[in-house]
Every structure is written in structure tokens, then in C-alpha cells.
Amino acid sequence: MKRGFLVLLCLLSVAFPLAAFADSASVEQDYLEKAKVVEASASRPQSLPGTNITGKTQDITVEVLEGVDKGKSVSFENDYTQVTAGEIVYVRHITGGFSTDTWSVADPYRLPVLGILFIVFLFLALLIGGFQGLRALASLAGSFVLIFFVLLPGIHAGYSPVLISIGVASLIIIVGSYITHGFNRTTTAAVLSMIGTVIITGLAAYFVIHASHLSGFATEENVYLNFNTNGRIDMVGLLFGGIMIGLLGVLYDIAIGQAIAVEELYHAGEHYTRKKIFERGMRIGREHIGALINTLAIAYVGTALPLLLLLSGATTTVAYLLNSEIFASEIIRILIGSIGLILAVPLTTAVATLMLSKKSSVTGHTH
Q1: Are strands 88-96 and 54-64 parallel, antiparallel or unpaired?
Q2: Looking at the predicted structure, is the pLDDT value of residue 24 above 50?
Q3: Do residues 76 and 69 lie in contact, with contact meaning Cβ atoms separated by under 8 Å?
């Protein structure tokens, strides 16, 4: 009896460390590290298994510049973006688990190019825009602060994406407008009309999203986000938030432009009545609507061009493609944005006319 008990203890003393080792070994580690290409062979063609596509591959040696593998020199086959000696890249190192270490090129190092482009943007904004350009940059910075430090943390914390998106959109409107254009009646008219438009289009978007039974999982990014957050984020609400934040771009443009147009009409023709200013302002606004609706639709098509090419060759019917969530989501984005744009014109014109013009008689005198 005692001998059997001792044998059992020995087996357990061996099994527990082995189980712990197996558990730790099964944990896979994924590192992204910056590295310099030391050597790179010429590219050679390579057939992708299971397809008729021929890609390119090469043998490279890199020196890791940062991260846990800093200073290590590694050679591997690169079948992604082809590189040359001296280039800086990001490499992916997968280790642990039950497989051998694998190395691959994750991305070329693009930050210097982005930095130069950003400097050119700042230079032109300040050179041509002057003080107004500086105020616009400050407004842009404020918008990003609200998005990255209020909107995104709020959604991650589990707050309603619908409410927080409307709140942040309103804050972006208020902060951005007054920083860029100053505290005056023209800016206030634009701000009031934009907030009113956001509320109206927000209600419309909320109803349409739920009436069309969108799930918010149209793209793989949404699926990954849902897994990474253990399902804490309301994906339908997140879709709504994206539509509302995207609306601000065209809405801001047309509301400010329309309010300034009304102000110029008022100063250019002080003998005009409110009715006359409104009519002339609407004439300008209609032309603006025609240009921006086309711009908005083409901009969305441009971003979705690879998707359109992929689905244009599909064997399914056009009706099914339009009905699919990935297409329906983009169509709703375009139409909600266009509806908000159209509503902003009469609303801004009316508010600006009431705030800027003091004459309400039907007819006026001429100089």
C-alpha cells in the first residue's frame, strides 16, 4: 500500500512540472521589431500554392534594431514586399508554442515619408493660410484630442457609442468652429445649424441602421475588434458612431461656407430684406450641394475601389450585392452624409439670416 502511494507521488511530481512546461510552451509570442536589411538577394518568381498567381520572393538577412531581439542577426525568406540592402523594415517574430521560430517582413518603414509629407502640409497651411491656417491646425489638433482621448476610451470603457458619438461630434463642432473662425454671430449660426443637423441625421441613421438589421460586422476589422474586446463593444453602435464622425467633414464645410455667404450678402446689400438674403443664400447653397454630393459619393467609391473590383467579378446578382451588409453599410454612409449635407443648407441659411439681418419687411429700398 505504501509502495503504491510512493509511486503515485513520484508520478505526480513528474507530471505537474511537465504540464506546467507544456502550458508555458503552448503560449505563442508575437513581436513586431524594427530592423535593418543587411543583405538581400535578387527577387525570383514564386508560384503561390493553390493559385495561378506568381509572386516574388528573396532571401534576406536583417539586424534587429529594437525590441527583445535587439542586436540579433537573422536570415529568412521574404515573400512579401521586396527590399534592398540598407532599408529599414518592421519584422514579425513569432516564437513559443509548439512550432519553430518564424520571421517575416511585416511592413516597410514608412514613417520618414509620412513625416516629410506632414511637414510639407504644415508649411503650406501656414504659408498660404497664415494666421487662419494656424487656427485651423489648432482646431484639427483639438478634434484629434477629442477623438483619441474621449471618443475611443469611452467606447472601450463600454459607454454607448451612439450617445458618446453624438456628444463628441457636437464638441468637435463647437471647439473647431470657434477656434478657427472666432467668437462671432456667423460662427454661432454655423454651430447651431450643425448641431441641429447632427441631431436630425443621427436620429435618421439610428432608425435606418436598425431597420436594415445591420450587425456591424461588415469588415474583418470589426470581427477582430469584437474578439479582442471580448464582445464588450456594441458593434452596431460603433457603426453609427463612424457614420456620425464621418458626417462632420462635409457638414463643417458647407455650414461654415453657407454662414459666411449669408454674412457677405448682408454686408454687400444691407438694403436686402431677410427674405431676399435667404433666397440668394439658398441659390449659393444649391450650387454647393450639387458639388459636395458628387464629391462625397466619389470619395467613398475611391476608398472602396478594391472591394468594388472584387465584387464586380462575382457571379451573384446586383440586387444581392447591394443587399449585402458590406455594401449596404457604405450606401447608408453615403446617403446619411448626403441627407445631412442637404439639410444643413436651408438650416444654416435660415439661422444665419435671422441672426445677421435685422430687416424683416417683404420689400426694401435700393441705393
Answers
A1: unpaired
A2: no
A3: no
